[in-house]
Amino acid sequence: MRRRRILLMVHPNLIPPEDIDGLSEKEIDVFRCEYNVYSTLRDLGHDVRVLGILDRLTELREIVKEWKPHVVFNLLQEFSGIAAYEPYVVAYLEMNRQRYTGSNPRGLMLSQDKVLTKQVLASHRIATPSFHLFPYGKRFKAPRKDKLRFPLFVKSATEDASLGIAQASIVEDMTKLRERVEFIHDTVQSDALVEEYIDGRELYIGVLGNNRLTTLPVWEMHFGTLADVQAGIATRKVKWDRNYQEKHGITTGPAEGLSEAEVEKLSRLAKRIYRALHLCGFARLDFRMRDDGKVFLLEANANPDLTYGEDFAESAASVGISYDKLIARIVNLGLSYEPEWRLYE
């Protein structure tokens, strides 16, 4: 791969160090993804600079103008503390005719807005759980009894990384529904999205590509002993607390027992969703499969976690795409994506 000038764009609190010697695992966990990507890009021979972005784009504009990076490797998850503003940073790069990795602004916007995602997919006849939206700042108004069936699952309509999700997110009656909706409004300060709870296997599929798409092997969340006493949902503790994972035997790995037809069906569905939401670069799609085989999309995650050893990277590694090859492929996809401004060069 040619040596490239690559600008790594991260949150200022997540700027990785040159090396991690002497740091504890807990200290490294804070910026593990950023360090993995940074060190891999350097090992691949690229000229890498890191830029922390909080709520100003002045430095980004200056470095793009003066250094002229071949590509910006986008690891941002928010701007000014607001996840919904991330697409605007990518749009800014597009307006400056700067190439970047990961999803375009349209794909980011559509996938981050969970209600809009459902509305788009409904037009493509792709199943998602039935839902009701409780807007932030408005008084709770109970939905019609025939609109949704308990149990229900309550989450933020816009935030990701399982923010605001706990076992209490599954509610069995109207009183608990009101309490959880008000909790999301008060603590997350976003609209509350209420969905019918789908009991079944939690499956993840990674997708790589712009026009020609590659799906990675189906991965599955195994809830271990937790599934014996609680509902199997990916709470913040389930996803990120290592001690909690070890205590309950929570793991992720290749989905076993799926027929070739089921795998092919999931692969085709993942590609349909990816294209419907105008995604590019790479994404991870989260599904639930019921015992009767029906599949529901839970969430579409543009620019998912790229930490070495986590789901996306491990799924790629299982088919021979090593971590350095994965990062190189994402760089090449960023370089080859055809933005609108290409028409005016």
Structural commentary:
The chain is α+β, with helices and mostly antiparallel strands. It has three domains: 5-101, Rossmann fold; 130-196, Dna Ligase, domain 1 (2-Layer Sandwich), CATH 3.30.1490; 200-336, D-amino Acid Aminotransferase, Chain A, domain 1, CATH 3.30.470.20. The chain is built from 13 helices and 13 strands. Strands 8, 9, 10, 11, 12 and 13 form a six-stranded antiparallel sheet that branches. A four-stranded antiparallel sheet has the order 4-7-5-6, with helices on one face. A three-stranded parallel sheet has the order 2-1-3, with helices on both faces. The longest helix is centred in the C-terminal third of the chain and has 17 residues, at 260-276. The protein is globular. The two termini are 25 Å apart. The mean pLDDT is 91.
Which secondary structure elements does this structure contain, and how are they paired or packed?
Layout: E1 5-10, H1 25-29, H2 32-43, E2 47-52, H3 58-67, E3 71-74, H4 86-95, H5 105-112, H6 114-123, E4 131-134, E5 152-156, E6 170-171, H7 174-188, E7 192-196, E8 201-209, E9 213-215, E10 219-222, H8 226-229, H9 236-240, H10 242-248, E11 251-254, H11 260-276, E12 281-289, E13 295-302, H12 311-317, H13 323-336
Parallel strand pairs: 1-2, 1-3
Antiparallel strand pairs: 4-7, 5-6, 5-7, 8-9, 8-10, 8-12, 10-11, 12-13
Helix pairs in contact: 2-13, 4-5
